[in-house]
Fold each of these.
Amino acid sequence: MRIALYPGTFDPITMGHVDIIRRGAALVDRLVIGVAINRDKGPLFTLEERVFMVEAECAALSKDSSCEIVVHPFENLLIDCARDVGAQTIIRGLRAVSDFEYEYQMVGMNRAMDDTIDTVFLMAEAKHQAVASKLVKEIARLGGDVSKFVTPDVAVALKAKFAK
């Protein structure tokens, strides 16, 4: 069984993330979406909220795919999470050249810790390349329309979060 891990904070999950999940699911038998517990980033949504949103978005994708898609929160090293879920591959999405520098360093460190786990990069579709969770949150915080960047359910969650 080909198992891959697609990690991220998903704060919130965007159309770019959904695109990478859909395309990643076409490559493997089981795709684990690793929702990172990253206290340093100070997420807007709680872990439970992020997991719920990712599960909701993946439910529809699972129906349209022969791939099993599961959501797995984690707080340990990415390479340890990959081992924990039995992944042979880590999937990372790239939006721009600037993403590659950081990702290149991470791949080197991960390979030094476990050279049996490969990393595969998927370029975001052109229409999603500018989409970043950080920017989506800023637009939502300032009352802008995020409907081009997230699904309707996530847009509602963002609106509710900033209405408080």
Amino acid sequence: MTSMAPVFLLIETSCRAGFVALATGEEVRRVGRLDESRKHARDLAPLTAQILEEENLRPGEVDAVLVSIGPGSYTGLRVGVMSAKTFAYATGAHLIGIETMDVIAQQAPPDFQLLDVIVDAQQDRIYVQRYRREGDRWRQDTELAIRYFTDWLNNRPMEAGISGPGLERFANRLPNKTKVVAKELWFPQPESFLRVGWQNFAAGKRDDLWTLEPLYLRPSAAEEKFQQQ
């Protein structure tokens, strides 16, 4: 490859259907979908190797690994982040953690100006973060938080739209005429994932190989069960 554009490996495992993708500069070149049964630990490494081979690239030619850090699937995120760290350590590539909700917000159509992104946090709770559009970008308007669904619903601004994978569970509990982003945009897409990653890369963001962790605001279900014993 003769292009001087940086080469990115994208790893998204926060949702049920994850993906691995390869991009140069601001162009997604190839996407591989992970099995929806969440066998990310089994599938991620061979899928990455396959994509690199199909693009005639060696692992050492990847400039940066962009990896989702959630919130989302506890196991999926752990596998994705550890895989990204291992790849970066072995190849010397930069490591950049991508907040999943930033990606989902990027996908909202122009007629949305205020947006709540929600992810199922189990036990009738959601992860929620509010975004406000500024020009052609979204900025975080609130900190990421865990709220009971009913509390959030009763106190959210009525003008705010809603997106995110949490709608799979909670969409049928929303009032009529609630402004909701189209279903195909509830989950991170490779192009918007790359857009956020490119912005971070161009701004000089680099994450530490040893300290990057998924965004966990609560223990895993197994840990919560253990604590209750």
Amino acid sequence: MNPAPPRRPGRTLGFVALFVGGGTLVVGASLGARAMLSPEHGAGLFNLQAAPRFEWKSIDKKHWQAVSATPSEATDVTDAREGNRGSCPPGMVDVVGKLKLDSQGRESSGEIEELQNSSCVDWISKDFPARCKTFDRAGWLELSQKLPTKPVHYCMDRFEYPNKAGENPMIVVSYNEATAICKTNGKRLCNESEWTFACEGDEAMPYPYGYERDAEACVVDRPWKPFTENGLAPRDGKKAREELDRLWQGTPSGSHPKCKSPLGVYDLTGNVDEWTKTTRTGGYASVLKGGYWGPVRARCRPSTRAHNEDFVAYQQSFRCCSDNTNPAPASANASPAATPEPSDVAPRQGSPKIADPTHDIAEDTQDDLDELDKKNGSASGVGCNTSPGTANGASTFVVLSAACAIAVRAVRRKRG
């Protein structure tokens, strides 16, 4: 008996055909699909395997980066073109100005976000997750003109890590890992107030580009795709790569010229969530800013505080900051330094740390269904699921996500 012929390597086909009784029945057409000749089922039966949408690079067997189809730009070229490096290290922006504080002199109480909400004149949706199309600039300036301010001066990476124009951000990274990477590069993770000011500027604009939400300016409002439970476990390997390839909707750093803040920092809202360090005195150190590519708030002020320092997900990245080597002198009439902000999330002991859902999600208004159903701090991006160890199918996941959203709406109505 002759041995079975070897399996042929995959090839890109314009169509796939199944031979039946001497005739040909076309069962599908898919440019770019990968077909494998299957000798076990006859010469005419093909096993379809979707071709990857992107080429992926694994970093330290933990993180991932979609390889960009366009070449990256040299940092010195970018610095020369942008002209806002100042005395900061290469690739960083000199950020200087006055951060608006709330009426009590606090940096991150949520009061300013609520004031901004009152100046929204055109809502896309007031329901979860709330998104405003247009803010009234004159109204906002009147509301905010008497708020105290705090002088700030520091350096911030111009782009999301690895901070190179033309490269995609590195994703699947925890807060602790981001902190360590910044330290290795001689920098530190930005705190949430530094991130906020770099996004909004002295005027405290709701969006880095102004008062009108613009899906063409930054990468926002793209369709939400439910992720696969445990799809990133383990983080390194074929399963994680395929899950990321299915979900990824980000773009290379600097590819949207209008997604640039008044201070000259790119891609602060949308594209990917960014880890920052809290300025509050308790609770998690880890705070996510900016939102990602989905239909989420994607504004300068909102923060997500529901995830512990070891949490990872498919859309999370970061950028680094550093102290300016030539700090600007403090203004003679500047507002006093902010007082420590009381924590409304008590520190927790042990692991894992689970956020308080009634505060971190309802009051801080989680960015979107992803942020809502990942509140349990799973290291694999697990959704809003049943008890640990329970296997849920995709349909169950969607139902549970919807149930979580309904619960949050009910809490918010009750509190309102």
